[in-house]
């Protein structure tokens, strides 16, 4: 027997072809915003339109890219993960201690780092799923717990690793992109395939759309939700490796604010905060917009408070756009259909 899941209850999907129209419109609008930002910052800074700026954008935001992939999956199932920044710090701290204090080789330290990230995600998922506690509360608790654990195991000291990890963030000769960025692109591709071409991805979208209907159709949503939180924690651990390699050390203060940047990038990419709709590829475009924005603000000499103010405004605007996206898409689609009928007549 074939299990049929409910479609997204968004009324705009009742019109044939509207989902495709809305997706194309989202991508086009993001490309327009990206182009406007590039032109705007290029006109205010003589050094923005340079190969060095491109290298900065490409190689310094691999960690945000990977975290955004995990955040997309969590938001699609109707959850949220506020702990990714602290899990990054804890995973990076384990990597630093394993290499600096225990003199373990990088592959072994890497496995320990990834295990910590996946373990934190497993705890988030188990508490949220097994006890039906909102993921907002659970991951908020993990945010504090993981950060406290990071300070305890490092004694609030930075672990310097130097050349042993720098090669991950160093641009490849004649290529410009780093190993970390290439791995991040592979993770984006795998996340896209998972969400759009696998049974698990179908379950994720169905759970975010109507979890009760999924349960009534005979599918237990708990394993899928648990696996999603594990993937988010694992993504945070991978991002920790990229961050540690970029700064050549494991900083217990690393990852602060990463959850806000990831949520902003994902929501800008069109992933719904209500669940049931999302795209890893569009989240990657959202990361590019955040990266260009932050790099451009650095080029024009914006202060740290100003950058935080602008980033907060971007998040609010992105949420507003998310709430009204369906209404705008339906209006535009119906206007196009009326225009086509007029031409046909």
UniProtKB/TrEMBL annotation:
Matches recorded under InterPro entries: ABC_transp_permease
Cited Pfam families: BPD_transp_2
Main subcellular location of this protein, as a coarse class: membrane
Cellular location(s): Cell membrane
Record keywords, A-Z: Cell membrane, Membrane, Transmembrane, Transmembrane helix
GO cellular component: plasma membrane
Record field: transmembrane: 27-49, 61-84, 104-123, 135-154, 174-195, 226-244, 256-273
Domain of life: Bacteria
Protein name from the UniProt record: Ribose transport system permease protein RbsC
Originating organism: Paludisphaera borealis
Organism phylogeny: Bacteria, Pseudomonadati, Planctomycetota, Planctomycetia, Isosphaerales
